[in-house]
Amino acid sequence: VPFDLGVLQYYYPGDYPSGYTSPDTTELYAGLGYGPVLFKYSIAMTNLFGFADSKYSQYFDLSGNFDTGFWGLTVNAHVGRQTVRNVTDGAYTDWKLGLTKDFGQGLAISIAYIDTDADRAVYTNSRGRYMGRATGLLSLTKTF
Q1: Number of other CB atoms surrounding residue 54 within 10 Å
Q2: What is the rounded distance in angstroms from the CA atom of residue 80 to the CA atom of residue 59?
Q3: Can you give the pLDDT of all 144 residues of the chain as single tens digits?
Q4: Which spans in the chain are helix H?
């Protein structure tokens, strides 16, 4: 049974205007896997990504990678739940559904659909862009 403990540090260089909370975030996490499925729990030890007074916000992540047995394709599925402490309507659920083709030699290509139910009023940035909208992602990965 795979088990993982760790620390994630998100650092955003630059200065922030007066009145804004730094988006730099430090999280502790623990993950436990069984077969193709992994559950991971994360807790923010700092304010969460620029939300003031949000220390101890939590994220719950359930992910799975399922071999189709066909042409080296793997189905990737994920659902996560973010809670944001002291932020009304800050909680959201996110999900992903994708396919990965493994070419061997550490080379893979993936395509995925990613979406959330994040509240538009909370997750629209200062330039008017909604940050929780659906998107597609195409990636090429080489592992050394």
Answers
A1: 20
A2: 7
A3: 789 999 999 999 988 888 888 999 999 999 999 999 999 999 999 999 999 999 999 999 999 999 999 999 999 999 999 999 999 899 999 999 999 999 999 999 999 999 999 999 999 988 999 999 999 999 999 999
A4: none
Token pair in block for residue 9: 């540090």
* Region for residue 123 given its phi and psi (left: phi exceeds 0; alpha: psi -120 to 50; beta: otherwise): alpha
Residue type, 106: G
Q: Smallest Cα–Cα separation from 91: which of 66, 115, 110, 119?
A: 119
DSSP 8-state secondary structure symbol assigned to residue 56:
T
* Total residue length of the chain: 144
Task: Identify the burial level of 110 via C-beta atoms within 10 angstroms of its C-beta, where 0-12 means exposed, 13-18 middle and 19 or more buried.
Answer: middle
Task: Please give the Cα distance from 115 to 16 (Å, whole number).
Answer: 28
In whole angstroms, what is the distance from residue 11 CA to residue 24 CA?
Answer: 5
pTM of the predicted model as reported, rounded to 2 decimal places: 0.88
Widest pairwise Cα distance in the chain: 55
